[in-house]
Amino acid sequence: MINYTNSEIRSILNGLGYRSRINSSDPNFPISQDESDLTDLTTQKAIKKFQVDYDLTVDGIVGSETNAKMQDEMNSLHEELNQLLGANISLEQPFYGQITINTVQQFQRSYTNPIDGLASLTVREELYTIAQNNPAQTTQLNHTATSTVLQHS
Q1: What DSSP line would sit under 9-23, residue for residue?
Q2: Residues 82 and 88: beta-carbon distance below 8 Å
């Protein structure tokens, strides 16, 4: 299991839509460089909302259970983006970085709005549905999206 740094946790929470740009001091939102304790009000609310959504103990602490669920969610997101768009996102470091943002934007251009690079719950549900139910679209998108995603990496 990966033990995320505080900035990676914030990046995941930002990228999955649990923290908003308005409440973030991160200039490269959703990517965070903030390594401070996860005790600020915005981050606490985001952690607790994540814990509620995934039926975890709601304590605002990113312990082993919450950390493992974040890793699972990022792996699922990356696997579906890889399957649908051929992005080849590494599952070795599953956090929300620039390649994930670029690939989510590519998905959003085809399927959802707005095109903000955030994999909100709605975007993740749509991605899951398309990846599971449309293997023909998956093959078609792989050919057109890979070069676009890699150009923006």
Answers
A1: HHHHHHHTTSS-GGG
A2: yes
Identify the residue whose tokens are 């909100």.
Answer: 120
CB 32 within 8 A of CB 14: yes
Residues ≥6 apart with Cβ < 8 Å to 69: 50, 54, 56
The token duo for 54 is 């995934």
State the pLDDT at residue 90.
Answer: 86
Express each pLDDT in 107-138 by its tens digit.
Answer: 999 887 789 999 999 999 999 999 888 665 54
What are the percentages of helix, strand and coil residues in the chain, rounded to 5? Answer: 60, 0, 40
Sign of the dihedral through C-alpha 114, 118, 123, 127 = positive
Tokens standing for 91? 């599952």
pLDDT at 18 over 90: yes
Longest dimension (CA), the chain: 45
